[in-house]
Amino acid sequence: MQQTPIIVWLRNDLRLEDNPALFYAAKQMCPVILLYIYSEDDQRPYPIGAAAKWWLHHSLKAFSKSIAEQLILRKGNVLDILLELAEKTKARAIFYNKRYSPHEISHDATYGKELLKKGLEFKAHDGNLLIEPSELLNQQGKPFQVYTPFYTAAMKFFDVKEPLSIPKELQFYSQNLASLSLDALDLLPKTEWTKGIQEAWNPGEEGAEKELSSFCKNNQASYAKDRDIPSVMGTSRLSPHLHFGEISIRKVYAKTWNNESYRRELYFREFAHSLLFHFPETPSKPLHARFLHFPWKKNEIFLQAWKKGLTGYPIVDAGMRELWQTGWMHNRVRMIVGSFLVKHLLISWHEGLKWFWDTLVDADLANNTFGWQWVAGCGADAAPYFRIFNPTLQGEKFDPEGLYVKKYVPELSLVPPKYIHKPWKMEASELKICGVELGKNYPHPIVDHDKARVYALDCFKKLSADSK
Ligand SMILES: Cc1cc2nc3c(=O)[nH]c(=O)nc-3n(C[C@H](O)[C@H](O)[C@H](O)COP(=O)(O)OP(=O)(O)OC[C@H]3O[C@@H](n4cnc5c(N)ncnc54)[C@H](O)[C@@H]3O)c2cc1C
């Protein structure tokens, strides 16, 4: 007779290495059932976006392959599925790694209560952050709202645990268990728009491992210098792998900790998660309440131009098209397009957050909320209201030759570097030589930077004065 198994319920931790729930389940010397449940109820109120669904499909495929197709896939209500499976297999315990978004914490608490009533152990493990957000507080016992003291305290008071190894022997529960096919989860889009994403990424633990090795070998040493240059592969591109837990943050940390500049970015992820943990309403409300009444504009034409990369500002358009084509955007450009949406177009950061949520393969509630509130100036450690990125100057500074722009905005491929970030300054005859017809094959700027800046400053200044 087989021993009673342990169910390892996988969520955003699709990896074998440094997976504490899996590691400690394997240590019990009993069979394990590796389970993934696709549950729309469990995602509520933040159902995952289209690009993330694409990633999830491929990540599940890769994970299942890595364990000889032993992953059990189910779809539906989490509690019903866990109870049914536990009853059928006589499992006494369900192991999982903690999640930190407010809705996930609340769902897990409900599951725990109900499972306990049925005599089942629902055992939490820490594996998705370097520091538990409940543990790192300021001297008054309150959450940090400014990054530098958060980082300093993290460095001073916390040691990061060593990553755990892949369990040596996994004994799978051997009685036939029904599993859905991956296609039955229905994660792939009906229309084919993911070609560019497919070319750009390799979801799964092996893909993550390769990305990390390549970063450590080729880019880590020049990270501080190159991380702001979007035409260079200067960053680690680990964000979707980290979001889906295909690689452990502790492993990334262990391989890169001596690079101060990179370490600070990893701790931005910790900071964003800490903020979401302590201020659970921030995906929908600004951290600073005075922004609740900011007079955001509703302008569908501008919003569509922004989403499609047709604003007439080349660096903004390149970023928005990189996002659409690859499901990812360089961090510097995320800041530029974000600032353009909220400060030049005065469109609410919620619209930006929603679009990113649907189109980013690394869409992450904590990081996305933090990024958008930072850009809008209404969050922790936010950009001051008077910092309004000039998209032309930002382009000239970070993409001086226009290589990034030319890659994603091919209409401008013949424009010389001098004008690549301001094609509207060229004479009509020069534009013609470059094959550009403003208003025909590339738009005029949809707003004038100087006027938009003055107007935005006025709105933001009024807000500051009103709240005094
Ligand atoms: C408006 C806006 C929205 C954003 N939305 C997301 C999002 O949904 N998901 C997401 O993962 N990141 C988001 N970011 C943060 C950042 O842009 C990405 O994490 C980064 O570009 C990912 O690329 P990388 O892995 O090559 O980063 P690297 O520079 O190699 O950094 C390594 C890791 O550190 C973390 N990190 C780096 N910068 C940040 C940051 N500013 N905030 C939080 N974590 C950070 C990420 O996990 C990243 O993978 C957003 C930023 C802005 C300005």
If you had to describe this structure to a student in words, what would you say it looks like?
With 468 residues, the chain is mainly alpha-helical. Helix content is 47%, strand content 6%. The chain is built from 21 helices and five strands. It has helices spanning 20-27, 40-43, 50-66, 78-89, 102-117, 147-157, 195-200, 205-219, 223-226, 239-243, 249-256, 260-278, 300-308, 314-326, 331-344, 349-359, 365-376, 391-398, 403-408, 428-433, 449-466, and strands at 6-10, 32-38, 72-75, 93-97, 121-125. It has a five-stranded parallel sheet, with helices on both faces. Helix 5 (102-117) links the parallel strand 4 (93-97) and strand 5. Helix 15 (331-344) crosses helix 17 (365-376) and helix 16 (349-359) runs antiparallel to helix 17 (365-376). The radius of gyration is 24 Å and the shape is globular. It starts with 5 loop residues before the first strand and ends with a helix. The structure holds flavin-adenine dinucleotide (FAD). Flavin-adenine dinucleotide (FAD) is lined by residues 227, 235-239, 242-243, 265-266, 268-269, 272, 331, 334-335, 338, 356, 360, 362-364, 367-368, 370-372, 375.
